[in-house]
Design brief:
This protein is an alpha+beta fold. Helices cover about 55% and strands about 15% of the residues. The protein contains ten helices and five strands; from the N terminus they run αβββαββαααααααα. This is Holliday junction branch migration complex subunit RuvA.
Length: about 210
């Protein structure tokens, strides 16, 4: 009896470990949220982000890094085009209140650098752009991961992003004073800043007014 219990415990422990590290096979099915990877005739259903989905080609061979999550009611596989995306996924799901689906949505909404930049700069609003992530969860992500995401970020791009966000926020606030709602001007502001990253607040306000 003791031997049987020990064996069952050993099997349980083994199953809790990420047994599938990667998959290499043909993309049998492909959607923005999942793919079926055919490996020697066996199809593996793999949850993916939009970032990874855009790198896959239907009926072509691919290689994915895999994170396996074992639950009482399911054995789930999540696939990533790069090791860095997998590492970010695991960091995100380590935060209380962030599940695998929420992590994939965030990875589908922002690039790795944007996520890292938002965490390092404390930009809760940017993280909340991911559907299902509210203010409290965004703040928890920032607090828990701010010392763990430095390697995902580009320092020069972070500075540029921070400056551009500040300029955009000031311009949108000025426009709100003029009675123009943020939802009407934000997309226009993003387009203008993308075309001219060094634009001033005053010029941005003028350009937005011209394009409304």
């Amino acid at each position: 009896m003791k031997i049987l219990i020990s064996l069952n415990y050993y099997i349980w422990v083994v199953l809790k470990i990420n047994m599938i590290f990667s998959l290499q096979g043909i993309v049998q099915e492909l959607t923005p949220t999942y793919a079926v990877i055919n490996v020697n005739g066996v199809g593996y259903y793999v949850g993916i982000s939009l970032m990874t989905s855009q790198k896959l080609v239907l009926n072509k061979e691919t290689f994915l890094f895999i994170q396996q999550i074992i639950r009482e009611d399911a054995h789930l596989l999540f696939g990533f085009n790069t090791r860095s995306e997998k590492e970010m996924f695991n960091l995100l799901i380590s935060v209380n209140g962030v599940g695998a689906v929420s992590a994939l949505i965030l990875l589908s909404t922002l690039s790795l650098d944007e996520i890292a930049s938002a965490i390092l700069s404390g930009n809760s609003a940017l993280i909340q752009k991911a559907k299902g992530i509210g203010a409290k969860t965004a703040e928890r992500i920032i607090v828990d991961l701010k010392d763990k995401v430095q390697k995902f970020s580009n320092p020069e791009e972070n500075i540029s992003t921070f400056v551009n966000n500040k300029i955009k926020d000031e311009a949108l606030s000025a426009l709100e004073v003029l009675g123009i709602p943020k939802r009407m001007s934000e997309k226009i502001a993003d387009r203008i800043i993308k075309q001219n990253p060094d634009i001033s607040v005053e010029e941005l306000v003028k350009q937005i007014l011209k394009n409304i």
